[in-house]
Structures are given as structure tokens and as C-alpha cells.
Design goal:
EC number: 3.1.2.6
Strand order of the largest sheet: 1-2-3-4-5-6
Strand content: 15-25%
Pathway: Secondary metabolite metabolism; methylglyoxal degradation; (R)-lactate from methylglyoxal: step 2/2
Order of helices and strands: EEEHEHHEEEEEEEEHEHHEHHHH
Organism: Moraxella catarrhalis
Protein name: Hydroxyacylglutathione hydrolase
Helix content: 25-40%
Distance between the termini: 42 Å
Largest sheet: 6 strands, mixed
Number of strands: 14
Pfam families: HAGH_C (PF16123), Lactamase_B (PF00753)
Length: 263
């Protein structure tokens, strides 16, 4: 698929609503607000074919119903726990499901942790794997645990880390600069130069009103301490560096998430 364009629409202060467009199809991921999406669609004379929802939080779902009122033929893909059971034509999806919107094919992954029914949508565009990961992975970070568990979030991040390094991730929030600040405070020495360099670039991008996203897995493996904790050897090094009694990967991951919660 070489004619696809992936565009972000900014909502609220830091939400990115991703759109995938080609000549046949327009797909909206996590429309937390309808106003900005409607303006974009009308400006570009686009009619959405489908809405994909990663999880039930209002900043990801708040615009869904308005968009479906405006575009009655638009399909909706969501988990049964996302609050759309009353919509007659909702397509309920979960781990292992596959579906196509036009000629764009998706695989559904349950990437729980942030919420217990969080989904990610995996597709191939321009010979690269693209992951619309909602609030599971952020650049240099990961989501906070709400209705999921830390063990689920750890497993989801490990699953991402096992993908090809050229995989591209499309997180739903612009948290990169603050995440890098935290990463610098806890990361191993071998990653400090990469974090410093990434911080300089991210700050410059934000000062110029540019996005820091999307990001490749190769990039995240250098700067994301939560991915570092998914590696048993690096987890042990982090535990030693910070004087942790339990050096298991899950325990180090949990400690990092707790530190970030209070950073």
C-alpha cells in the first residue's frame, strides 16, 4: 500500500487523533473530539469509512457518536467494553481478530494494562508494520495503569519490544518531552547520550509546533526505559543502579511505573 497518508489531528492539549487516508478510504483512530475531525474532513473533502477505538476513555471516544450521526455509513470497530453496545452496526473486536477497511487490513491485539480491554491496531503500510497503540506505548514512556494491571502492561510492552525494529508506533498523546525528562533521571549510562540527543530534538520540534510522533521501535529501544525493563539483563542493571531488592524484569518495570507516577 503506497498511496496511504497518515495524518494527525490535534485535540484538547495533547491528543492526537490519527487518520489513515488513501483514494478509497479514510479511517479515524480514537476521535476524542468530533469538532476538529469534522473540520479536517470537510476541509479535505473526505468521507470516513471507519472509526477504530483503542480504549474507552472519553479523550479517545468522545467524538465517536457525533461522527456516526454525521456519517451514517461509517463503520465502528471497538471492544465490547468500550461502551458502544447500543450502536446496532458496531463491530466488536478483540485479540486475534482481522478485518479490512477498503484495502487496508488490520490485526487486533489486546494490549491491556492502561485499561483491561485496551486494543492496538496493527497494519502494513509502505512495507512497514504500523501500530496504532493508543495509550499503551508513548515515546520514551508507557501508559499509566487504570483498570488494567501492571502485569498486563508489562506483557503488552514486551510484546511490542519483540516486533521488528522498523515497526512504527502511533501513540495518542504528545508526552515525549516530559517522558524523556523522566528517562534521563533513571536510565542506564549506556542510554544517556541517546536520551539527551532525543530530548534536544523533541524540545526543538515542540518549540516549532511540530509533532514528535510517530516513532520507530529502533528509536524507542534507545530511549524508552520501560522497554529497557523488558530486557532481563537491562532490568538487572537498572535494579543494581537503583538499589532494588527484586531485580526481576516485572519488578523493575513496576518500580519504574511507580516512580513515573510521582515524577
Amino acid at each position: 500500500m503506497s498511496d496511504c497518508r497518515i495524518q494527525a489531528v490535534l485535540a484538547f492539549e495533547d491528543n492526537y487523533i490519527w487518520l489513515i487516508e488513501n483514494q478509497m478510504t479514510t479511517i479515524i483512530i480514537d476521535p476524542g473530539s468530533s469538532q476538529e475531525v469534522l473540520a479536517y474532513l470537510q476541509k479535505n473533502q473526505l468521507t470516513p469509512s471507519a472509526i477504530l477505538v483503542t480504549h474507552h476513555h472519553d479523550d479517545h471516544t468522545g467524538g465517536v457518536r457525533d461522527l456516526l450521526i454525521q456519517y451514517k455509513n461509517c463503520a465502528l470497530y471497538a471492544h465490547a467494553n468500550h461502551g458502544f453496545d447500543d450502536i446496532p452496526k458496531v463491530n466488536l473486536v478483540d485479540e486475534g481478530d482481522h478485518f479490512a477497511v477498503g484495502d487496508i487490513c488490520f490485526q487486533v491485539w489486546r494490549t491491556a494494562g492502561h485499561t483491561d480491554s485496551h486494543l492496538s491496531y496493527v497494519t502494513e503500510i509502505d512495507q512497514k508494520t504500523r501500530v496504532f497503540c493508543g495509550d499503551t506505548l508513548f515515546s520514551a514512556g508507557c501508559g499509566r495503569v487504570f483498570t488494567g494491571t501492571i502485569s498486563q502492561l508489562f506483557a503488552s510492552m514486551k510484546r511490542f519490544n519483540d516486533m521488528d525494529e522498523q515497526t512504527v508506533f502511533y501513540p495518542a498523546h504528545e508526552y515525549t518531552v516530559s517522558n524523556l525528562k523522566f528517562a534521563k533521571s533513571v536510565a542506564l549510562d549506556e542510554h544517556q547520550d541517546a536520551i539527551k540527543h532525543a530530548t534536544h530534538i523533541a524540545i526543538t520540534q515542540r518549540q516549532n509546533n511540530q509533532m514528535t510522533l510517530p516513532v520507530s521501535l529502533a528509536h524507542e529501544r534507545q530511549i524508552n526505559v520501560f522497554l529497557h525493563a523488558c530486557d532481563d539483563n537491562k532490568a538487572k542493571q537498572l535494579a543494581n543502579q537503583h538499589g532494588l531488592n527484586d531485580n526481576s524484569a516485572l519488578a523493575v518495570f513496576r518500580w519504574l511505573r511507580e516512580q513515573k507516577n510521582h515524577f
